[in-house]
Amino acid sequence: MNSKTSFFFTIAFLLGYSTLAQVKNHAVYTRFRLPASERSALRQELSRENGPYLLFQGGMRKHSTDQENYFPLYRSSLYHGIVTGIYGYRINNTSFEVGMGFIWHVSRNLHELKGFEKSVPIYSNFNSINLPIGFRYDIPTGTKQNFRFGAHTSLNLLIHQTRKPRNPDILYHYFTQWPSTDYVDYVVRIEDKGLTGFFKIGIHTEIKVFKSSSLLLQLSRAVSPSPSRVLNVNWKYQNQSGSFRDEVKLEGTIVELAYKLPLNILNPQKSIPKS
Fold it and tell me: Which alpha helices (DSSP H) does the chain contain, by range?
């Protein structure tokens, strides 16, 4: 078992153990059941206290690595999904978070053959499981503190890629309609980048729903300090050869909607006198 797999199962175990502990506490709570109106008020009060929470978020990312003018029929390829499950812990206005997510990415870039007035499109799929580690800071507003506004940031480590090109693979691109003798053949090789990731920085607003949980709207920017994947391409055309690099970076603007569940509301028995 490699280090990435071990790390993956460790995080999964910790998240599962914490959730099961909260469910167990909920069973204890049923022994001291309050009237519905009091239970609702108690959950609402507990949701404002410091403690753990679960956050489920999903949205879309618009990246800017494609040469969209060359692919006018594929503009939708600029938009890709991102989903994340997070375990967090809030202390006053600061929250610390760790979780697991999945991010989709498909890029299509056009590369010119040096010495010829011809170009080759390179397609790259880079769908990845990522591990976000970060924190957020927000402040309550309003007399009932039903709204919060703040900023968040995280480091997202890419621990597994679901699709990789075969390495090496001889490919052909025809400049005229097939069958034709006017084509270029090329070989794609993946440059190993090791463990990579991207930073996510943004702002968010939080509003109470169902009195004890919250909905969040997040606007973020993804920034990659280095390429997450590099494809080295060697080509041959009309007895001449050359090479170029195609780089993949997980960058762009992210819009997400999230649901936040404070785990304190599953453990309200600590506030109930056991007489």
Answer: 3-29, 36-46
- Return all residues near 203 (Cβ < 8 A) that are at least 6 apart: 149, 150, 151, 152, 218, 219, 220
Would you kindly state where each structural domain of the chain is located, as residue ranges?
Answer: 3-271
| Residue of higher predicted confidence among 163 and 118 | 118
Which of 111, 107, 129 minimizes the C-alpha distance to 62?
Answer: 107
Average pLDDT, the chain: 80
CA 221 – CA 93 distance, rounded (Å): 22
Written out in words, the top-level CATH class of the domain with range 3-271 is: mainly beta
Task: Work out the burial of residue 89: count CB atoms within 10 Å of its CB; fewer than 13 is exposed, 13-18 middle, 19 or more buried.
Answer: middle
| Residues composing the chain | 275
pTM score, whole prediction: 0.76
Judge whether 254 and 154 are in contact, CB under 8 Å: no
Q: Is the dihedral of CA 154, 68, 189, 225 positive or negative?
A: negative
Instruction: Please give the Cα distance from 27 to 20 (Å, whole number).
Output: 11
